[in-house]
Each structure stands twice: as structure tokens, then as C-alpha cells.
Sequence to fold (539 residues):
Amino acid sequence: MFEFVDRYRLKILAQVGIAGLAILLLFCGLTDKYLWQDEAETAVLATRMLKFGKPLAYDGVNLIGTDRFDADEYAVGRQAADWKDGLDYHLRRKEFKPDTAWKWQPWGLFAVTAVSIKALGPTTLAARLPFALAGVATALLLFHLVRKYSGSFQMALLASLFLLCNPYWILHARQCRYYSLSSLLLVLTLLSYARWQESGKGGTVAFVAAAWCYFQIDYGTVWPVLAVLFLDAFLTRKHSWRHTSTVCAVLAVTIAPFLYYYELWGRGVGQDTSWKQRFLANLFNMNEYVVPVLVVLASAALLAWHWKSLAPAERRLVVVSEGIILALALWVPTVSVVAFLRYAIIAAPLGCLLTAWTVVRVFGSRRVWLIWPCAALLIVTPWASLPLHALVSPSYAYALNPWYRAEFSALRNEDFSHQQDPNRLVIDWLKKNAAPSDEILINYEDKPMMFYLPNPIRGGVSAFRVADDSRMPPRFVVLRLSVGFVNWPIFLSEVRRYRWTQVPVQAPDLPWGNNPDPMSQYEIRSQRPVLFFAQRVGP
Fold:
């Protein structure tokens, strides 16, 4: 009796500690920086969903595009002069539906954000709150998943601790974007899958519901996950072939209408790099920030060695986790234009699960005192990731150190120090000094202005309405000279038509604001030149 009470208290204390650490890391300084381009896209489309009933790319004033750079200056120049040509240009690129309804991400992402904005208003906190909460829930559910199906309290605690000590997972989970929700639904899908395979009450319905919701948040990474899970279901034969096929068919039928609406079969964009280059870049990201390749190999070897002695549920948990990691390593470079970390970081909970399982199984019950020192080394140092560097050299955009994880400095800067944010500096000045009807010309980070300001915004990567003479000329201009992926001649031609006076705002000329990607985390903001922010004073 007393032993049960002590175990129960220990479990509760562990979960309180996990929740407390998660809240500290995910909420501290959450609103210090304004939404950056990708976050603002989510928030603007959510706001329009509240207003129009669907996330419209064009609301009659401002346009949301996919930020795909087009080197064809003639095509871009034509649409820059007329809003109708601009809409046709984006429709030809299949960025949204004929009624301008967004289809580049599933609408579940915007629905979640819209609920928060409806409750709290169009603020930075409202936009990021549901995603930070999802991050807390992910850490707690990972603890529950590992403890339930491995039977090890220590392994469960380690898995959650590894996740919360992953700086780039934390940085992404704080974003008004699908990352933390994808991680949460990945863990929920695994939990419900295990329950279904054990014939637990409601397991089948829970699995279909979790997988369906996962699709509605992130229809990019759900496919390799489902492929691995159904392959495991067919091979292990915990249920009859007919039963498993029926579950697969039900899920397919419920997803099919959305596949048709989002036109996923026709999705595709030009890829500037080879598959091999994207594969190696994604492999580096996964090895460095999701799970070291060395750990994956070690877990596979341990699994083979202890196969007969492991409980079936624990075996399945490790097998499907390894399978999903491998599938994402191949899937991301196949379907993406650039292998950004954001596409792989959602699998960090599974990487932490494998790492915790490997550490505990290596040392076992005889050398249990070595578990926590080993865990500390894995958290603080990149030593387990270093062997892959002989095959995949890190890019110049990554700040690495062979003795400790350099990304902790990025987490410290984000959570516990104030940094200059070009979006906040510029937007706060415009809130006080610009009339709602003043047109603003900007070459990049146009979407944050659409969220925080009522003004007509022209420009962006596609140069929408940059040279539109049917309305008042731009009253203000914001140019980031650090941005190379826009058609500069079109912007410069328009700026040269008028006389400007510099606005007294010392905003650093950074390509983006609160971007969580490694390549953006090591800019020394105080040493950056000031972006061009000016007010029109005459022709």
C-alpha cells in the first residue's frame, strides 16, 4: 500500500516538474518579439477565417502569398502594377483556390489560432498561446507514453527531460505555426495506435481520430507516420487483415475530401538543389537536433539483442519510432524544396524516446548510477552527433562547438534576454504615426504588418501592387537590404519615383524577425546596419 502511494506521489511530482519546466521554457519572453513572416501568415489567415468563414489569401486589401521567389522579372513586373493581374499570377501558381481560399496548409492550423484570437484579441500572446500550450502537453504525454509502454519511470522522465532540453524544439514550439501541434498529434497518434493494437477500449476510434486531426494540422509529415504504423499493423497481425484494412479504409475515406479540396496530388514546386543535397542537409539536421544517428544505430542493435526479452508493447514502441525517424529522413528531402529543420523537428519527441530507451537499456539495473551522468553528457554536449560530421559537413549557417551545444545560447537569448526585433520597432512606430489608409511598401516581412496594422500593404516576395498607380502612392517604405530573394529592380524603380526622408527608427537590417531556424539564431543584431525605413515627402 505505502509503496503504491510513494510511486503515485513520485509520478505526480515528476509530471508537475515536467510541466513547470515546460511552462518556464515555452512561456518566458513569449511576446518579447513580434510574429515573423511565417507566424504572421498563420495569424492573418486565422483572423480572416473569423471574418469570412474561411482563410482567404486576399481580403480585398492585402494578399498572402507563399513567398516563392520568381526570377522572371517580366511576369513579376506585370502583376506588380495591377491587383487583378497579381491575383491571376498567384492563381496560375496554384497557391490558393479561385475564391482565394488558402490551400497551402490545412485549415486546422488556422482554426486553432482563430479560437485563441477570438478569445484574447489579435495579439502576439493570442497567436502563440495555443502552440506553447501544445508544447507543454507534448512533454507530459511523452512521459505517459514511455512509462505506459516501457514500464520504466526513469526512462519516461529521461525522455521528457531530453525533449525540454532540446533548444530548437523549444524555439519551434513557441511559434505560431504547426510545429508543436504536429509533435503533440504525433505522440497522440502513437498512444492511440498502441491502444488500438492492444485492443483497448476505444482504441480504434481514438487512432482514427488522432490521425485525422494530425492530417488537419500538418498534411506534410502525416504520410510517412501512417505508412510506418500501418506496415507494423499488417506485419504484426495483432488484428485480422480485414480489420486492419477496414481501419485504413475508414481513415482514407474521411481524409479523401480534404485531399481533393487541397489538391495535394498537384502539389509541387521547383527544387533548386538535388535530392542528395537535400537528403544530406536533412540528415545533418536530424542528427544534430532530433536524434543522433549513433543513437539510432545503437537502439537498433540493442533491440535486436534483447528482442526476446522485451515486452511486445515496448518492442513495438521502439520499432515504430525508429521506422518513423528513417521514413522522415527519406520523405523530407523528397517532398520539400529546402530541407529546413522545421520539417524534421516535429519528430524530436521520438528522438528523445529512442535516446532515453537506449541509455536505460545500455546501463540496465546493474549500472543505474551511470544513467544520469550519461544523460547529462547527451544534453550538454554534441559528442553523439560528431561522428556524422565526417560524412556531412555542417553549413556555415550553423554555430557549432565540439564541447557544448551552441544552441543553448539561442535559447537563452530567446527566453531570458531582450533582443532588438525589427518588426516590433517598425510596427510600433507606424502604429503611432501612420494613418490607417497610408499605403506601406515593403520588400519582405510584409505579413507581420498585415496582422498588427490596418494599412494597405504592397510588396512582399511576389511584389504585389508595388507599382499600382490606381491608388495613393506608398506613404512609407521599408526595405531590408539583407534580403536577396526579391526582385530588387521593381522595388528600386518604385522608390526612385519619390523623395523620402528617413524615419528615426534604428531597426537592424535582418532578413527576418523571430525565425527559429538555426541559420537565423546567431546574427549579432547590434552590429547589423539599419534597414531603410522612410516616409514619402514628395515626387
Summary: The chain has a mean pLDDT of 92. The first helix runs from residue 2 to 27. DSSP finds 21 helices and five strands in the chain.
